[in-house]
Amino acid sequence: MSGDMRDIWVYLAREPLVHLTLTLAAFQAGSWVYRRGRMNPLLNPVLIAVVLVVSGLLVTGTSYDAYFEGAQFVHFLLGPATVALAIPLYRQVEKVRRSALALGVSIVTGSLAASASAVAVAWGLGASRDTLISVAPKSVTAPVAMGIAESLGGLPSLTAVLVILTGILGAMLGPWVLTLVGVRDWAARGLAIGTASHGIGTARALQVNEVAGAFAGLAMGLNALATALLLPLLARLVL
Question: How many Å apart are CA 37 and CA 115, to the nearest integer?
Fold first, then answer.
C-alpha cells in the first residue's frame, strides 16, 4: 500500500465496524461468485470469503487480534445459528425417530472412521505425537475439536486450521463423492456430510435440500458428542 493509503487505513481500522464490514462483504462476494457459477461446489462461498479476508489482512498489515476485535460479532452469531439448526430438524423429527438405530450406528462408525483415517495418514507421513492428536478431531465442529486437542496435549491452533479445511473440502467434494458411490437418499447424504464436514458441510446441505440439512445438523452435533467421549479413551489406549 502507498503511504497515503496506509495512513487512511490506519485511521479507519480504529473503527470495529471496518473489520465486520470486510467480513460481510467478503462473504457476499463469495456468495455472488457461487450463484454466478450455478452453485458449483468448488466455488464454496466460505473458501472465497476466507481467501478475500486473509488477502485483505496481509495487504493492510492487520493482525488477527485487531481483525477479530472488530469481527467478533459474527463469531457471536455462531451460537444462535447453531441453535437455529433445530428448526429443520424438528420438521423431520418423525423421520429421525424411525431411523434412530441406523443413526446411532452411523454416527459412531463415522466418528471413528474420520479420526482413524486422519491419524493413519498423518502417522504414515511421519507426524509427531502432538500432530497426531491435533489431527484426530478434524471432523468435529471447531470449538469442540480445539477443546479435545487441548485436553489431550495437542495443538488447538493446528486443529482449528484442519477443521476449517475439512469443512470446506467436505462441502466442495462431498456431494460429488456421494453421487459417485450411489448414495441418493437425502437423509443419508446429509448424515454423511454432517458427520464428516461439521458446520460448513451442514450449511451446504441446507442449501441443497431441507431433509439433508436436518440430518446434517443432527450428525454434526452427535458426532461432536461421540468424538468427545470416544477419542480420549482411544488416545489413552493407543498413544
Answer: 33
Same structural domain, 102 and 160? yes
What residue type is 139 in one-letter code? S
140: left (phi over 0), alpha (psi -120 to 50) or beta: beta
> Do 148 and 227 sit in the same domain of this protein?
yes
d(CA 140, CA 124): 22
Q: Could you read off the pLDDT of 31-69 as tens digits, one per residue? A: 999 888 888 878 888 889 989 999 988 888 888 878 887
Q: Which three cell numbers stand for residue 156?
A: 488447538
Rounded mean pLDDT of 191-211? Answer: 87
Please check whether residue 170 is in contact with residue 201, taking contact to mean a CB–CB distance below 8 angstroms: yes
Residue 188 sits in which domain range? 86-238
Q: What is the dihedral of CA 149, 154, 158, 162, to 10 degrees?
A: -50
Number of domains comprising the chain:
2
Give the 3-state secondary structure of the chain: CCHHHHHHHHHHCCCHHHHHHHHHHHHHHHHHHHHHCCCCHHHCHHHHHHHHHHHHHHHHCCCHHHHHHHHHHHHHHHHHHHHHCHHHHHHCHHHHHHCHHHHHHHHHHHHHHHHHHHHHHHHHCCCCHHHHHHHCCCCCCHHHHHHHHHHCCCCHHHHHHHHHHHHHHHHHHHHHHHHHCCCCCHHHHHHHHHHHHHHHHHHHHHHHCHHHHHHHHHHHHHHHHHHHHHHHHHHHHHC
Sequence letter at residue 31: S
